[in-house]
Design goal:
The protein is mainly α and about 170 residues long. Strands 1-2 form a two-stranded antiparallel sheet. A two-stranded antiparallel sheet has the order 3-4. Helix 2 runs antiparallel to helix 5, helix 5 packs antiparallel against helix 6 and helix 6 crosses helix 7.
Length: about 170
């Protein structure tokens, strides 16, 4: 339980400190939303909020990897690190790199969209590329479990289709 609270705390702190930084950066490079007749706000608002959250996620994810790696390297008792060592096989595997690389792609698409206002088809293309990277690195949804039951639906042939749809809808 400690590690879940620790991860939440690190994610919160990184978001807290990155938000003013990205707000200044957005203002400096004119990545802002200007007021207009169809807008509710009356003053210029900096964009890049999604980049802040995505960067916070990546920082937390990489920190989780480093802690897990150091715990296994120094043979720390698994009792203390039991929650985090469960993720060890995932974190040092291909899926970890897939999540990092696709996260960078999504953040890049978000920056481009905030700066130049990408058309929906181009944003969807960026999301599809991020999905392809995830799938290439082995991230897939193999089954869906119905809450409060032991019933699970195996996806068999439609694994990749469901994974792509799931990830696109979450972005």
């Amino acid at each position: 339980m400690f590690w879940y609270i620790f991860i939440l705390f690190i994610s919160f702190l990184s978001s807290l400190f990155l938000t003013p930084y990205f707000a200044r950066l957005a203002t400096k490079y004119d990545i802002v939303d200007k007021p207009g007749h169809r807008k509710v706000h009356k003053k210029i608002l900096p964009l890049l909020g999604g980049v802040t959250l995505g960067s916070s996620f990546l920082i937390t994810f990489i920190l989780l990897f480093l802690i897990s790696f150091l715990a296994s390297l120094f043979s720390v008792k698994q009792v203390f690190f039991s929650d985090i060592l469960i993720w060890k096989n995932f974190l040092i595997g291909r899926q970890f790199l897939g999540v990092i690389f696709s996260g960078i792609i999504v953040i890049g698409v978000g920056i481009a969209d905030d700066k130049w206002g990408l058309p929906p088809k181009l944003k969807l293309l960026g999301q599809l590329i991020a999905c392809v990277v995830l799938i290439y690195f082995g991230v897939r949804i193999f089954s869906l479990t119905i809450n409060f039951t032991n019933y699970s639906i195996n996806l068999f042939i439609i694994v990749i289709f469901v994974t792509v749809i799931w990830i696109i809808f979450l972005m």
